[in-house]
Amino acid sequence: MIKAGLVGLGKMGISHCSIVNTHPEVDLVAVCDTSKFVLSCIGKYAGIKCFKNYKKMIDTCNLNCVIVATPTKFHADMVRYALKRNLHIFVEKPFCLHIDDGQEMVAIAERNNLVNQVGYHNRFIGTFQKVRDLVRDNTIGEVYHFLGEAYGPVVLKEKGGTWRSDMAEGGGCLYDYASHVINLVQFILGNPDSVSGSVLKKIYSKGVDDAVYATLLYNNGLSGQLSVNWSDETYRKMSTQVTILGKRGKIIADAQECKIYLRDEQAGAKLEKGWNLRYVTDLSQDVWFYLRGEEYSAQIDHFIQCIKTNNRDNINSFAGALQTDNIVNLLKNDAMARV
User: Fold this and answer.
1) DSSP string for 53-100
2) Are 150 and 228 in contact (CB under 8 A)?
3) Do the Cβ atoms of 145 and 193 come closer than 8 Å?
4) pTM strictly above 0.70
5) Distance between CA atoms of 69 and 198, rounded to whole angstroms?
6) pLDDT at 7
7) pLDDT tens, position by position, 145-164
8) Dist. CA 49–CA 25, nearest whole Å
9) Distance CA 251, CA 269 (A)
10) If you count Cβ atoms within 10 Å of the first and of the last residue's Cβ in the chain, which end, N or C, has fewer?
């Protein structure tokens, strides 16, 4: 059994706690949080050791790995501490707030030969994996443009007072929502080389952006639009979609379905001329525990299997997530250059 510890018991931390605690190959030994109420519930009903100090948890529990699900501003110190004690790390997204910190953590993880993963769950959704495969197989021909979108109802009135309302702590639509879309675009199409026309729009929030609009550019001529808004009440929860335009077809995909339009039949790929539809239920593998979506369990299982098989070429490594942080910084700098 792999012995795991978990730091941070907010919304994502509680989700990870439930998933990890049911994994057949993991023993969730300890959790850490600042909430006395949450810790008392975990300790009483789950029988897991509880800590308020993550360093004490790491130093006393003989762990193999740690899952970090705290606000982004704490990631660097916590991850660095765990890496230096040779623990494999899964950390929630975004990776970190400062590129220098990210580069240091990538270097330590590589030097100590440790599994490192960041929680960009879209890469574990079957429909988006299908899009990547179709693009790599040149199914729709040369890709010349794309649209990456995400909308949801996070901030629908003027308020403040949490870390989510402070960009210096990792708050705002750019860090919380747009980073998911950027990472997904990188997964499917590679890393953009530059950005242009970036707008970080405040709608209800005072200290952070509620919407992000920008153009992403590649040196090979490929271009794309980023449109993300967490103040859209027409959505019940976060909804992410990509549209890929190629010279021989078009792909539209979200977390439920992948629609493929082709000018000509591709018998080898079992795709007809015109529209083809593939559902996520036909593209996803079963998981041992379902909470919010298969992708959340699948990403944790991938992390555990990488530890078991000594696989360092994993999905969503620190190095890959640092590339997402780089694009986030490009968007911030581009937007602020016009202020």
Assistant:
1) -HHHHHHHS--SEEEE-S-GGGHHHHHHHHHTTT-EEEEPSS--S-HH
2) yes
3) no
4) yes
5) 29
6) 98
7) 999 999 999 999 887 666 66
8) 18
9) 15
10) C
Structure tokens at 118: 């960041």
Give CA–CA dist 240/153, Å, rounded: 13
The pairing of strands 116-118 and 88-91 is: parallel
Query: How many residues are listed for the chain in this entry?
Result: 339
User: Helix, strand, or coil here: 119?
Assistant: coil
Per DSSP, the chain holds a count of helices (H) and strands (E) of 11, 14
Which residues are CB-neighbours of 129 under 8 A, at least 6 positions away? Answer: 123, 283
Provide the residue type at 128 as one letter.
F
Helix (H) or strand (E) holding 298: helix 294-309
Place of tokens 């003989």: 62
Of the candidates 76, 115, 119, the one whose C-alpha atom is nearest the C-alpha of residue 96 is 76
The structure tokens listed for 169 are: 């702590």
- Residue 200 confidence (pLDDT): 96
Report cis status (omega within 30 of 0) of the bond before 94: yes
Nearest to 240 by CA among 87, 137, 122: 122
